[in-house]
Design brief:
The chain is of the alpha+beta class. The protein has 10 helices and 17 strands. 48% of the residues are buried.
Length: 372
């Protein structure tokens, strides 16, 4: 992958953008993709839209990826200067204790650590229990409320994980044989800035390689997905798409304790094509079309389902009069934590698949998705 593209991904994932506070990542996307787009715009919740026109206006293909990340918001400052917090998005209590965070204040970023009463001071029966978020606090080094306020702390400050993007190389082995190499990316906010990144790279590829396509592609960096798919609703209203290809992470099931029936995809084995989640049953004709394109182009893919959870497609597919929709994902380990892992080969194959889909998705094909 191009050095410039990886730098964009690094800047995007490192940026500050919990749900409701996405201006920084939105501006990074705007700065990167505007030179490749024919038009740009926004909705009034802060989602950023970028359009690549093909030979015809229709169909309009929407490719959303949300730019908000799971984070926190300050709920109080106690007399000793410690911050309590509410979650922005879903957090598993066990991944929080001892983690570094960044609190954004009017005076700048203040570092902190998520902490709780030390286990040394807990009775044995309490030490055996999971410490829940309501028992935790954020320590910013203050010793009283006045010090915390002087540092800029106040109710309503947003908070994000303190975690930086990095990559590492690995040799691939399958069935005991060497099968090449892969780059593994490590960082926060892959859910779902990797989706936004892919949409931007599709638009860039179409522009730079002068690829003809019989449609209009609209990439979208949507907001507030983690707190209720809110930017998806307003984006769908603005774009009024004919087809939606939502770009997301998928839960990689290749970690200890997960059965294939729970999460069938593996990191490094290709993008996932979602056949079901709790917010949407995909349009079946669109599903088969994308599978057929992948097979013809010999692009690896994995079929997947998520029993609990949804994506922006959950709102977009029932927007206006309805929109044939499908979710294409990157298998990612350890989502909704301070750091996840994903395969950059999976990312590249997803971009290739989407470019091939865009090349073939004309109005006649799009109309066939809803023909009776």
């Amino acid at each position: 992958m191009r050095t410039e593209s990886v730098k964009f991904l690094e800047e995007l994932t490192n940026s500050f953008g919990p749900s409701g506070f996405e201006k920084e990542p939105a501006r990074i996307v705007k700065e990167y993709v505007t030179k490749y787009a024919d038009a740009t715009g926004t909705d009034k919740l802060g989602s950023f839209l970028f359009t690549k026109k093909g030979s015809t206006d229709k169909p309009v293909i929407l490719m959303p990826g949300h730019i908000d990340e799971v984070g926190f918001i300050v709920s109080s400052i106690n007399k000793n200067g410690f911050l309590t917090f509410n979650p922005l998005g879903g957090w598993f209590d066990q991944v929080l204790l001892g983690q570094r965070v960044k609190v954004r204040t009017a005076k700048g970023i203040v570092p902190g650590i998520i902490a709780a009463k030390p286990p040394h001071l807990l009775p044995a029966e309490e030490r055996a229990k999971v410490v829940t978020k309501d028992k935790m606090f954020i320590d910013i080094g203050a010793s009283n409320e006045d010090e915390a306020k002087e540092m800029g702390a106040r109710i309503g400050n947003p908070i994000m994980p303190d975690s930086c993007f990095s990559t590492m190389q690995k040799r691939i082995f399958k069935d005991g044989k060497r099968k090449g190499t892969d780059t593994i990316a490590i960082g926060k906010a892959f859910d779902d800035r990797i989706g936004t990144f892919i949409a931007a790279e599709v638009v860039r590829t179409l522009r730079e390689e002068k690829i003809k396509h019989p449609n209009t592609v609209v990439g979208a960096a949507t907001t507030q997905e983690e707190v209720g798919l809110r930017g998806a609703r307003t984006t769908a209203h603005v774009v009024n798409p004919d087809v939606c290809l939502t770009l997301e992470v998928d839960i990689a099931g290749d970690v200890p304790g997960i059965e294939p029936s729970e999460a069938p995809t593996k990191m490094g084995y290709g993008p996932s094509i979602q056949t079901y989640d709790s917010s949407m049953i995909p349009n079946q004709e669109l599903l088969e079309f994308v599978i057929g394109v992948a097979n013809k182009a010999k692009i690896p893919y994995q079929l997947s389902q998520i029993a609990r959870g949804g994506t922006d497609a959950g709102i977009i597919h029932i927007s206006n009069a309805g929109c044939p929709s499908l979710v294409i994902g990157i298998p990612t380990r350890h989502i909704h934590a301070h750091a996840g892992l994903l395969s950059m080969t999976d990312v590249e194959n997803t971009i290739k698949l989407l470019v091939e889909v865009v090349k073939k998705l004309d109005k006649k094909t799009a109309d066939s998705f809803t023909a009776i």
